[in-house]
UniProtKB/TrEMBL annotation:
This is RagB/SusD family nutrient uptake outer membrane protein. The keyword Ribosomal protein does not apply. It is found in: Cell outer membrane. It comes from Adhaeribacter arboris. Gene3D superfamilies: 1.25.40.390. It holds the Pfam family SusD_RagB.
Length: 486
């Protein structure tokens, strides 16, 4: 089923990250505290799919990332997605879909319960904040779903599993209408809840930033201007002086990072293991500092030559984003093997628990989206300064004055590629700008010329592959229509 009934999660401290547990349906949601715990639980499925599936579906298919071949595991379910050999029975799609609707179910449950008359609120702001969180997260769940699969079932209230079978896929336009409505409502709710803002939670800035991104994705550039400008004018966010500081797990960033998935080393449930996925599997403990932890499943999100060459020579972001380990590769040859440097080894945990936050919306994203919107509506000269802010932090201070619309469009595309590499943005950017087929066809030719282990059918790019296949179980059980070509 694409919907799961019930199951919030709770935590006494949001920064300890809402560990998962079951709550008693029917008798539980009768106090402010219980609604806040239910709000905490709305984040949990997203945290879970960001750990394992989302990077496979949003970064690995792009020209930024590939994988170190592993003679033990081959391409498995991840490598075939990198090569665009896509099938509806791939477990990554099913897990992502189910986790997304798990999260949507939680959000719907909160919005249904929050108006119970027996609930006494110590401050009305807590009610607005909780509603805002549910609306924002529901919008984000649907945004990721629609960008992956196209039209999906839209559900906005608690329903039974029997009712779920009757709900079919809505057209993309209707899904986006729901997303935009939710984000507008969320921004209004958050504006009334500023006195109870809490780091790590979604807030007004996150709702406005995501609304602007949705409009840019829809090519509604004029509509994107106002929410993005509001984030900039709020004065709440800034670019950290050093790009590396954004990815320092010992100093969680809430100045540049507008919204992030929160992780912690405190428990397996709260931690990620990104560096154990991304370090070369032949590197042992040289990168992870945990030689007892097997890396047999590692070597993913390996930086490609395309990404490495996209950085300008003096770009300070390159040494933060891409590291090299000199050692034996999969074929026994010693090489300088590139790997993703943004995510770090454990700080205190003795095992494979790491606590890097995963940025979803950063201030640099807002600046570049705003520049893109201005450029597209004919205000290229005004847009340049926002691009230059991002470049200046990266050590790139050359004057951009005089760039025309097309030149600035291409520069923004390159800036987004290097600024947000390994943050699950590149695949979506390629799709929304209409460049995915051309870029990935050329990328695939270069990859196949370099890597003898790729499948013969790798990188056979066709328009239908811009959408992922709907998971097989949704076709069989819920009788949903499959995307063309699968």
């Amino acid at each position: 089923m694409f919907l799961l009934w019930l199951l919030p999660a709770c935590s006494d401290d949001f920064l300890e990250i809402y560990p998962e547990s079951s709550l008693n349906e029917g008798t539980f949601y009768k106090s402010e505290k219980e609604i806040i715990l239910l709000a905490n639980g709305c984040y949990v499925p997203m945290r879970n799919y960001e750990k394992v599936e989302h990077w496979v579906m949003a970064e690995l298919p792009s020209d930024n990332a590939s994988f170190q071949y592993n003679t033990a595991t081959g391409e498995a379910s991840k490598g075939v997605i990198d090569q665009f050999i896509l099938a509806s029975n791939n477990v990554a799609y099913a897990n992502f879909w189910n986790a997304s609707y798990n999260g949507i179910t939680r959000c719907n449950k909160l919005l249904f319960e929050i108006d119970r008359p027996e609930i006494t609120w110590s401050k009305p702001a807590y009610k607005d904040r909780s509603a805002g969180e549910a609306l924002f997260l529901r919008a984000l769940y649907y945004f990721n779903l629609v960008r992956q699969f196209g039209g999906v079932p839209v559900v906005t209230e608690p329903i039974s599993s029997e009712e779920a079978v009757e709900i079919k896929r809505s057209p993309e336009d209707q899904v986006y209408e729901r997303i935009i409505a939710d984000l507008k409502d969320a921004a209004t709710r958050f504006a009334q809840a500023k006195e109870v803002d809490e780091v790590g939670r979604a807030n007004e800035g996150a709702a406005l930033a995501l609304l602007g991104k949705v409009y840019v994705t829809r090519h509604q550039f004029a509509e994107a201007e106002a929410p993005l400008k509001a984030v900039i004018n709020s004065g709440k966010y800034l670019l950290l002086p050093n790009y590396a500081d954004v990815f320092n797990p010992t100093n969680k960033d809430f100045k540049e990072t507008i919204f992030a998935i929160q992780f912690s080393e405190n428990s397996v449930e709260l931690a990620n293991r990104f560096i154990f996925w991304f370090a070369p599997w032949t590197s042992g403990g040289a990168i992870t500092n945990r030689p007892a932890i097997s890396l047999v499943g590692g070597g993913w999100n390996q930086p490609t030559d395309d990404l490495i060459n996209a950085f300008e020579p003096s770009d300070l972001r390159k040494d933060v984003s891409i590291k090299y380990w000199n050692g034996k590769d999969w074929d026994g040859q010693v090489r300088d093997i590139p790997y993703c440097g943004k995510y770090k080894p454990p700080v205190t945990a003795a095992d494979d628990r790491t606590g890097d936050n995963l940025p979803v919306l950063r201030y640099s994203d807002v600046l570049l989206l705003y520049a893109e919107a201005l450029n597209e509506i004919g205000r290229t000269g005004e847009a340049i300064s926002y691009v230059q802010q991002v470049r200046a932090r990266a050590g790139l201070t050359n004057d951009l004055t005089g760039l025309d619309k097309v030149s600035l469009e291409n520069l923004i595309d390159k800036e987004r590629q290097v600024e947000f590499c390994f943050e699950n943005q590149r695949w979506y950017d390629l799709k929304r700008t209409g460049k995915a087929l051309a870029v990935l066809t050329a990328h695939g030719l270069r990859e196949k010329a370099k890597k003898s282990f790729l499948y013969a059918s790798a990188y056979e790019m066709t328009p239908n592959k811009l959408l992922a296949p709907v998971p097989e179980e949704q076709i069989l059980v819920n009788q949903l229509a499959q995307n063309p070509g699968y």
